[in-house]
Specification:
The chain is mainly beta and 176 residues long. It has 2 domains: 12-75, SH3 type barrels, CATH 2.30.30; 86-164, SH3 type barrels (Roll), CATH 2.30.30.100. The protein contains 1 helix and 10 strands. The protein has one helix spanning 36-42, and strands at residues 12-20, 23-31, 45-55, 61-70, 76-78, 93-101, 104-112, 128-140, 143-155, 159-164. Strands 4-3-2-1-5-9-8-7-6-10 form a 10-stranded antiparallel β-sheet. The longest helix has 7 residues, at 36-42.
């Protein structure tokens, strides 16, 4: 199926990497919407095919042909697939943020209109919110891990805290 607005092929499989409180899930999902964020915000669960679940506690893994994961079980998902219709994008300003979700810390940028504060307006956003140039920190088998992702989708309903992060001499948005 093809999205008339973007010309993107919909219903195709894309990579999926999600983080729950005690594991990382990797596999493929059928993209039924223009973007992964749209799919996750529209559905209460997602079906992951060829899933590999890796425990962040002890490193053991388990494979599943199919695994249905409820959105409320996911702290974060790595954004993949198409970015959606360029003509629908609004002018935004990147705002440095630090979000704590379960055992994860995500530091990067939330984009909002120039006069808006993304921290104060978080309750007015969809459930899965994008953080760009994200550094994700967590423990894997009692060892600290720090990974960079172009964009992660953070489940704001799972957020323990969200605060503005200083960008002086530190964070700077990745230019595209």
């Amino acid at each position: 199926m093809r999205d008339e607005r973007t010309g993107e092929t919909m219903g195709t499989e894309i990579d999926f990497v999600g983080f729950a409180d005690d594991c990382r899930v990797e596999g493929r999902v059928d993209l039924e919407d223009a973007r992964l964020a749209d799919l996750l915000n529209r559905r209460d669960s997602v079906l992951v095919r060829h899933a590999v679940v890796v425990s962040t506690v002890d490193g053991h893994s388990q494979e599943f042909e199919q695994l249905e994961i409820e959105r409320k079980e996911l702290d974060l998902v790595v954004a993949s697939g198409p970015r959606g219709d360029p003509s629908r994008r609004l002018a935004t300003k990147p705002n440095g943020v630090l979000m704590k979700l379960g055992p994860y810390s995500a530091e990067g940028f939330m984009h909002a209109p120039p006069t808006a504060n993304p921290v104060r307006s978080i309750d007015h956003r969809p459930t899965m919110v994008a953080i760009t140039d994200a550094v994700l920190e967590y423990m894997f088998c009692d060892e600290p891990v720090s990974e960079w992702f172009h964009t992660v989708l953070a489940n704001r309903e799972m957020a323990l805290s969200l605060r503005t992060a200083s960008t002086e001499g530190g964070l700077a948005p990745d230019a595209e």
